[in-house]
Amino acid sequence: MRRPLPLIVIGLVAIAAAVVLGAIVPERYELAVLAPCCLLSLAFAWGVGKLGPAWLVLPAFMVVIPGTAVLVGDGHRALMDVLATPQTCVITSVEDLPRPDNPAFAHHVTCPDGAQLRIVVLGEQDKKMVPGPATVLRHPLMRPLLADRNDWSGDWVFGVPIAILLLLICATTLRARRVMRQA
Questions:
Q1: In sequence order, which ranges of the chain are alpha helices (DSSP H)?
Q2: What is the mean pLDDT of each run of 10 residues along the chain (183 residues)?
Q3: Would you say 48 and 116 are in contact if contact means Cβ atoms under 8 Å apart?
Q4: Which of 8, 17, 21, 74 has its CA 20 to 30 A from that of 30?
Q5: Other beta carbons less than 10 A from residue 160's beta carbon
């Protein structure tokens, strides 16, 4: 493939799909979203290497792989902050979920409209909420979140798109410089 634009577009679509699908699918299926989106996002790095000098592939890999992985979770939380409707609900019970690496807590929540929600929060004991009233962020398409535990990294959510934009500017500028030398 000689043209870099389709590769770059495929990679960017994969990163955007990771954010959107990461917000929609249940948590236990996040890996099913993460694996193909990370693989397809490699097309962006390949396209940047074809657009500019080949050494730009390395920084592109360094942005795309961890960026896609982090945006599956943080992208969901950031989208919920912007698009979701806050609703006061009641936490009826909290259970500890056995996990090998990171503790998790399942909060059973009842909302005024009668909806019974199970919201899983990852983290240490300080992430565990006590039964009682709580604000829940709800959206018709995305998984609900507890507003008090909706902590997302602005550095990643805004940094990945900025880094992608800078890589594209560098690749385009270096390519234009090379073309100008050849003319």
A1: 4-24, 30-51, 57-83, 154-182
A2: 85 92 86 91 92 89 89 87 92 89 89 91 85 93 88 86 92 84 78
A3: no
A4: 8
A5: 21
Tokens of 107: 């909060």
Q: How far are the Cα atoms of 25, 102, 139, 149, 165 from residue 146, in angstroms, in the given order? A: 17, 18, 12, 5, 32
CB-based burial of residue 143 (10 Å sphere; 0-12 exposed, 13-18 middle, 19+ buried)?
Answer: buried
pTM, two decimals, is: 0.81
Residue in the structure block whose two tokens are 């199970």: 118
Q: Which DSSP string do the residues of 139-162 spell out, in sequence order?
A: -SSS--EEGGG----HHHHHHHHH
Match 């259970």 to its residue by tokens.
95
Angstrom distance (rounded) from CA 181 to CA 79: 45
CA separation for the pair 14, 120 (Å, rounded): 26
Six-digit token string for 111: 């909302």
Question: Tokens 């389709």, residue?
Answer: 6
The rounded distance, in Å, linking the Cα atoms of 67 and 177 is: 29
Q: Which amino acid is at 21?
A: L
